[in-house]
Amino acid sequence: MRIATYNVNGVNGRLPVLLRWLEEERPDIVCLQELKAPQDKFPEGPIRDLGYEAIWHGQKSWNGVALLSRVGEIHETRRGLPGDPDPSQSRYIEAAIAGVIVGGLYLPNGNPRPGPKFDYKLAWFERLIDHAAALLATGAPVVLAGDFNVMPTERDVYKPERWTDDALFAPEVRALYARLLEQGWADSLRRIYPDETIYTFWDYFRNAFGRDAGLRIDHLLLSPSIAGRLKNGGVARQVRGWEKTSDHAPTWIELNGPAS
Predict the structure, then answer these.
(1) What is the pLDDT of residues 48-90, one digit of tens each?
(2) Is CATH 3.60.10.10 correct for 2-255?
(3) What is the DSSP string of 125-175?
(4) What are the site positions for Interaction with DNA substrate (predicted)?
């Protein structure tokens, strides 16, 4: 079973890219972020035409998350985090799909730092940690996937010295990510590639993709009850090179065992 996360950076404006990737790669379950579309403007029809069911949590102009499945029904379990400090922002959606609980998330950017946006990021991250602990307590197989807007270590950012003041690399944010992993979650790509340079995002400016000046901010975390099924994973870098594409590339993992 292949599960992917993709910050599409505008689901309607980038729809040809999304559909091309879905048709070529055929991931089983997909978490999308940054839909930038209100609830009634999600392109459900073209996505269903490719064989995917979909649920989504839209928001006009900003944010927005969705889950897609071609391996069975999507049984929504939650949209929004418990105690979300700003429930008007569409940043979390969760469902049971093919025997797995999938939480799709778009963690706040937090810039500029310091300031209210950074404070909101920290508060949202704390709520995610609390909810993640509750999910682990169930013992169910869980995948938390999305754009976390955090580079966990210096290995995850091109020229880390240039990012010391950025909210994505702030010590407080990296510490929260470490706390999340300490609950027992496995950072899947780092489990497979412990020492390699891996990026999932390249800015549009200064030829960042051409220079491979990237960041690893899109993550798929696995609960202990499913981490042992991890078989493979990677980043579909070629998608970042397509015309009118997102500044993120789809990031994926493959799990042993059939979808059930």
Answers:
(1) 999 999 999 999 999 999 999 999 999 999 999 999 989 999 9
(2) yes
(3) HHHHHHHHHHHHHHT--EEEEEE-----SGGGBSSGGGGTTSTTS-HHHHH
(4) 248
d(C-alpha 22, C-alpha 83), whole Å: 34
Report, in this order, helix, strand and coil percent for the chain, each rounded to 5.
30, 25, 45
Backbone angles phi, psi at 221, to 5 degrees: -105, 140
Q: What is the pLDDT of residue 260?
A: 46
**Residues annotated as binding site for Mg(2+)?**
7, 34, 147, 149, 247-248
Which residues are annotated binding-site positions?
7, 34, 147, 149, 247-248
| Strand (E) or helix (H) holding 53 | strand 53-57
Contacts of 50 (CB under 8 A, 6+ apart): 19, 22, 23, 70
CA 84 to chain centre: 18
Helix (H) or strand (E) holding 35: none
Handedness of CA 109, 110, 113, 115 (dihedral sign): positive
Q: pLDDT tens digit string along 163-180?
A: 999 999 999 999 999 999
- For residue 151, the tally of other CB atoms under 10 A from its CB is 25
Q: Which helix (H) or strand (E) holds 258?
A: none
Judge whether 24 and 252 are in contact, CB under 8 Å: no
Which residues, including other chains, have CB under 8 Å from residue 80's CB and lie 6 or more apart? 57, 87, 90, 91, 92
